[in-house]
Design goal:
Layout lengths: L2 E2 L8 E10 L2 E7 L3 H7 L6 E2 L6 E2 L12 E4 L6 E5 L9 E5 L34 H15 L14 E13 L3 H11 L5 E5 L8 H4 L2 E2 L2 E2 H13 L4 E5 L1 E7 L3 E7 L12 E13 L3 E3 L12 E3 H11 L1 E2 L4 E5 L3 H11 L7 E3 L7 H8 L4 E3 L1 E8 L3 E8 L8 E4 L2 E5 L2 E3 L2 H5 L4 E4 L4 E4 L14 E3 L9 H18 L32 H4 L3 E3 L4 E2 H9 L5 H8 L12 H12 L3 H4 L13 H5 L16 H6 L3 E5 L2 E6 L7 H14 L2 E4 L4 E6 L3 H8 L12 E7 L5 E11 L2 E6 L4 H14 L7 E4 L4 E7 L3 H8 L15 E6 L2 E6 L8 E7 L3 H11 L6 E2 L2 H10 L34 H4 L10 E8 L10 E7 L5 E13 L4 E9 L8 E5 L5 E7 L14
Parallel strand pairs: 2-8, 9-10, 9-16, 10-13, 16-30, 18-26, 20-21, 20-26, 21-22, 35-45
Antiparallel strand pairs: 1-19, 2-3, 4-5, 6-7, 6-8, 11-12, 14-15, 15-16, 17-27, 23-24, 24-25, 28-29, 31-32, 33-34, 35-41, 36-39, 36-40, 37-38, 38-39, 41-44, 42-43, 43-44, 46-49, 46-51, 47-48, 47-50, 48-49, 50-51
Helix pairs in contact: 3-5, 3-10, 6-7, 7-8, 12-14, 18-23
Length: 1004
């Protein structure tokens, strides 16, 4: 049985006992325990069930590579599924439950699948559930849906908070073992700004357990001194409980910091997601021990040798009184020695190598431990825990030579460098035949925009498993990173660690090597997804020779641990079945994050009221005071109308339109996008973005333009003003400012990177107010100032800077209503004061604000299009009769070639027209113009659709714009449109300009 030892536990504070519960049972542990170590100390060896066969599962590892010991952690708003017991730090009051079983962990009905193994081989789901067809919906699908997934989805709102943090450093070092610490020191001594992160709560990594000497002192003392030295360096930042989650282009790194998982009652965010920019990255992420593949290697109590060693040394926990060690390398002997020195029994060390081990083997023999060379495990005995092992010759087929009673098995199949972060951004690997693992290939490192490598690997992550080699390699890596970041590398020599020679390891991919089907079907590769050696061999037999295909066919490496323990063994098994060398089979793709991160950390502060922060204009408070009715427009809230007491929204809109048409109104237009485009190539750039010519625009003038995507479809419109020879100000729709700015930057950075153009989104730097109506000029003249805004002084589609009253203003003579109109831009800080001044000046004219609905109605009366109404991602300018806005002089613009394709130039495309109902009613939004006959689905054929529809107070009738088949050729024709209640309404096709067709009112 597993229990707490009287001695040992270097990470524990035995003076502070903690209480926690597992599946409703109360247990105790100590400060410094992980959940897994505390459960093992209480003889809770089984911690879950496997996914497919529901086999009993206990921890197999002691760190982030753990695939088995996953729990539902916490309750209510603190509930989190699929938490690794091996990395969850114990805290007082912790509550958790095991997963993937019913009704209980000890008695799981799903375990019946274990007795139907032959019916559930790899890829069985591709071959079953097909017949009878009706059974899928009523039988198979409900079963599959009920069985899918691990853990439970949280039901309550997350009670914790999360945040994002941004950092800019010269060198990031990921991994706080002795290699990471040494690399950080070497880089820090150069003067570089260094960030060192370690995913656990402790520094030193495996060296603190395995021991050794560096510069003549115990490695533990060396690590303590090294940490103290780094903490004293102002240019070095150390963060533990922080994982390097991902490496991306241009030195972008994601760090995942678990701020208070270990202390949930403390104030602050639970998790913090770091977004880091670094010139150079050093990955000192260590190596992971591999399991061995033998029958019964998944029974609770079978663990990695390094994990059993960790539990003994770090937590003072014995996994069993009698532990059999099975290995193909010398490192596992350290576990046997640690167990023996803890006062426990090691009945035998089974070394698969015929020649056996080196100095460590001699040390084990000196302690009285029996060592058997050339031997392996035929099978492990037991069900919910280990009861014994059957010994066989590794070279044979599994004939049992001896049976030994034991309650734990420590296995070691060699070590694999953690190459994930190196590989995230394109780093390539090379096969190390001597150590039977993939290691980073420094000649094919991830490269940045300049073609230079920006990721370096250090220590055992680089394949240097020996302490002496690892420390030197780390020192060199830190110096290289600092030099690549532009600093002079330190001349200080690398520390010297004591050599620890070991006998060569021998790859063992199956134990015994000639195991037959009965043993292979019980030898597990992927513990969580229940993938066996026999499954991979079957996939190869069925033609899945690509490692990526095999992965998907068998689900090997697709569990929440992403194959950290199973990948190499699975690749070797596949290569063996294909009779091919392992390097030729290749590896699967490593993708971030390295281990799962919380959804809350990804969202950060973006939740609740700040999930989508509202953008407010400088005049928003005034709108609220007037009890405006708001509508969402992008991230903004704009006044839809300003209803007065007893007034409906429709009545308010009518009042606002008539006041504006007859006298003067004002609109808060601050939300319209404003993007500065500047540089010697600005004109050329805008010529490519807009359908019409912008480079010929004169300073002081404006031009309306259309913008299409590369597929030819209309995506935005707006007025462009030329400020000077190199500067343009592009106005966009309210909802399009960020999107269009991003669109501009996308082309500048990815396609036209050598053009001398800069862009800046200045939407929120200005308040912009439209003064509209026959008396608009009179209102502005009352304010005074030095700006000539007369008809001759500021002509239509012109702009000028100056003073209006006491305000610094830029006045645009543009109109979206058809009325005399000025749009005045003032600094945002002056916006409210300018608004108030206009209200005061316009009082004698009855000035009143109007909202977006009045704006939309007035522009529709003039036949002006609106992005999002007349466009839907499938509309081109020609559909809207806007050929006049497409330059015939330009060789190219975005979308030009696409618009020349046959279906885009087809005369059968629907064209924009106006509609007037015969009875004066308003056509419903989204109505379709119906045609004769029915389509294949029994629906009425259509010949058009309504894009905008309103009641026009100016005309006192319903008006609409629509895209209609051959619409411009059918003026005066009456068509029929459907209504929501199933009836229809008749409307006449007319010119889409309903009011002041000659544009006389805007030129008064």
């Amino acid at each position: 049985m597993s229990t707490r030892l009287a001695q040992g536990g270097r990470l524990l504070n035995k003076g502070k006992q903690l209480h926690f519960s597992f599946n409703g049972k109360q247990f105790t542990g100590y400060e410094g325990d992980t959940l897994a170590s505390a459960l093992l100390a209480n003889d809770q060896l089984m911690m879950g069930r496997s996914f497919k066969y529901h086999r009993p599962r206990g921890p197999v590892a002691s760190g982030a590579e753990e695939p088995n010991a996953l729990v539902n952690l916490g309750k209510g708003g603190n509930f989190e599924p699929n938490q690794r017991a091996t990395t969850t730090e114990l805290f007082n009051g912790l509550t958790c439950e095991s997963q993937n079983h019913w009704p209980s962990l000890e008695f799981d009905v799903g375990a019946v699948n274990n007795y139907m193994t032959r019916f559930f081989p790899a890829g069985f789901y591709y071959k079953t559930f097909m017949f009878p067809r009706a059974a899928w919906k009523h039988v198979f699908e409900p079963i599959v849906r009920q069985s899918a997934g691990l853990g439970k989805a949280p039901k309550d709102r997350d009670a914790d908070t999360y945040e994002h943090f941004y950092a800019y450093v010269d060198v990031v070092v990921m991994g706080g073992g002795v290699a990471g610490l040494q690399a950080a020191k070497a880089a820090g001594l150069s003067g570089a700004k260094v960030l060192l992160m370690e995913q656990t709560a402790h520094w030193g990594g495996r060296s603190m357990v395995d021991g050794g000497e560096v510069d003549g002192q115990p490695v533990a003392d060396y690590v303590d001194a090294l940490v103290a030295e780094l903490e004293a360096m102002e240019n070095v930042t150390l963060r533990n409980r922080m994982m390097g989650a991902g490496v991306y282009d241009h030195g972008y790194v994601l760090g995942y910091e678990r701020v208070r998982d270990h202390a949930p009652l403390e104030a602050g965010p639970r998790h913090r997601l770091w977004r880091i920019r670094a010139k150079q990255i050093v990955t000192a992420t260590g190596a992971i021990e591999r399991p061995l593949s033998f029958a019964g290697n998944d029974i609770p109590g079978v663990m990695l040798a390094s994990a059993i060693r960790d539990y003994v040394v770090d937590y003072g926990v014995s996994v069993g009184d009698r532990t059999v060690v099975v290995t193909n390398n010398d490192d596992a002997y350290r576990t046997a020695i640690a167990i023996k020195q803890a006062g426990l029994e090691v009945p035998v060390i089974l070394d698969a190598r015929a020649g056996g081990g080196g100095a460590l083997a001699d040390e084990a023999r000196a302690l009285g431990i029996r060592v058997e060379n050339g031997k392996g495990i035929a099978k492990v005995k037991g069900g919910k825990r280990v009861t014994g092992v059957a010994i066989c010759a590794q070279a044979g087929e599994g004939a049992v030579l001896e049976e030994i009673k034991c309650d734990a098995v420590a296995m070691s199949g060699g070590w694999s460098p953690v190459v994930h972060l190196w590989s995230h951004c394109g780093g390539k690997l090379t096969w190390d035949e001597a150590q039977a693992h993939f290691r980073p290939d420094p000649s094919r490192a991830p490269t940045s925009h300049d073609g230079e490598a920006f990721v370096t690997v250090a220590g055992s992550a680089n394949g240097y498993l020996d302490l002496a080699q690892g420390v030197k390699d780390a020192h060199d890596a830190g110096k290289a990173a600092a030099k690549a970041a532009g600093f002079t590398a330190t001349r200080k020599a690398a520390p010297k660690a004591a050599e620890a020679p070991e006998a060569a390891m021998e790859p063992v991919w199956l134990m015994p090597q000639g195991a037959g089907p009965e043993l292979r079907i019980k030898a597990w590769l992927d513990y969580q997804n229940d993938v066996k050696v026999s499954d991979v061999r079957l996939a190869a037999q069925e033609g899945y020779e690509s490692v990526e295909h095999t992965k998907r066919y068998t689900t090997l490496g697709m569990a929440s641990d992403q194959g950290k323990l199973s990948n190499i063994n699975g690749l070797a098994t596949l290569a063996g079945q294909l009779n091919a060398p392992i390097p030729s089979v290749g590896t699967t793709t490593f993708r971030p994050p390295y281990t799962p991160i919380s959804m809350g950390s990804i969202a950060g502060e973006a939740r609740g009221d700040v999930f989508q922060p509202l953008r407010l204009t400088p005049i928003h408070a005034w709108h609220e005071e007037q009890k405006a009715f708001f509508e969402p427009v992008g991230h903004w809230r704009r006044p839809y109308c300003y209803p007065r007491t007893g007034e409906s929204h429709g009545e308010a809109v009518k009042r606002e339109i008539l006041q504006t048409r007859n006298s003067v109104g004002m609109l808060d237009a601050s939300t319209l996008g404003k993007i500065i485009v500047k540089g010697p190539d600005a004109g050329k750039f805008l010529d490519m973005l807009y359908t019409n010519m912008m480079s010929t625009l004169k300073p002081g003038r404006c031009r309306y333009g259309l913008m299409c995507n590369e597929n030819g479809f209309l995506i935005d419109d707006g007025v462009v003003a030329r400020i000077d020879e190199d500067t343009f100000l592009c106005h966009t729709t309210t909802g399009g400012a960020e999107r269009i700015h991003g669109w501009m930057e996308d082309w500048l950075q990815c396609e036209w990177w050598d053009w001398k153009v800069f862009t800046a989104n200045v939407t929120e730097q200005y308040a912009q107010i439209a003064i509209v109506g026959p008396n608009a000029r009179k209102v502005l003249e009352k304010l005074g100032g030095d700006m000539d805004i007369s008809k001759e002084g500021l002509t239509f589609m012109g702009w000028k800077d100056g003073k209006i009253g006491d305000f610094d203003a830029r006045a645009y003579r543009i109109s979206f209503s058809g009325e005399l109109s000025y749009e005045i831009a003032v600094p945002a800080s002056q916006g409210r004061a300018f608004w108030d001044a206009i209200l005061e000046a316009g009082e004698e004219f009855g000035i009143m604000p109007y909202g977006t609905e009045a704006l939309h109605v007035m522009r529709a009366e003039k036949g002006f299009i609106m992005i999002g109404d007349e466009t839907d991602g499938t509309v081109i300018p020609q559909d809207l009769n806007m050929q006049w806005a497409i330059s015939k002089k330009k060789e190219d613009f975005l979308g030009k070639r696409a618009q020349e394709r046959p279906h885009m130039a087809s005369p059968e495309r629907w064209k924009l027209v106006g509609l007037e109902t015969l009875d004066g009613s308003v056509i419903p939004d989204g109505a379709y113009a119906i045609a004769e006959g029915e389509n294949a689905n029994g629906q009425r054929n259509t010949q058009g659709r309504v894009t905008s529809t309103y009641y026009s107070p100016t005309l006192d009738r319903g008006i609409a714009m629509a895209l209609v088949h051959h619409g411009t050729d059918r003026m005066g024709e009456v068509i029929e449109l459907n209504k929501v209640d199933g009836s229809t309404v008749k409307a006449k096709i007319v010119d889409p300009i309903f009011f002041d067709k000659d544009g006389e009112k805007q030129n008064v």
